[in-house]
Design goal:
The protein has about 110 residues and is mainly alpha-helical.
Length: about 110
């Protein structure tokens, strides 16, 4: 949709909305396949138990829609190449260090 989930709110309003409100379905803004929209809305569910249990479950649900038939790993790489900011090895190493420090913090 190229929209933020909760647009037009001040920062505190954004925080409240993310924790308390259900987002609008994508179809409120653009045409979307119903099966894909159901998956997206499950991913955005407040209750973790309502979300897909794992990335592999999510991938299986997405494949089951049949929307990506003909979409290859090369197609995906080309699509992401024009959108993703490059990440350097130094950035990855720093992120890993920060994560490791936080995961071992016993405060």
């Amino acid at each position: 949709t190229r929209r933020q989930v909760f647009e037009g709110r001040p920062p505190l309003g954004q925080l409240f909305a993310h924790t308390q409100l259900d987002p609008e379905p994508p179809s409120a803004h653009v045409p979307v396949d119903a099966a894909l929209e159901a998956i997206v809305m499950r991913c955005l569910a407040k209750d973790p138990a309502a979300r897909p249990a794992s990335a592999s479950v999510l991938a299986a649900e997405l494949r089951a829609t049949g929307l990506a038939s003909g979409w290859t790993p090369d197609d995906a790489a080309a699509w992401w190449a024009g959108r993703a900011a490059p990440v350097s090895d130094d950035d990855l190493a720093h992120a890993s260090t920060v994560f490791d420090e936080r995961s071992t913090d016993t405060r």
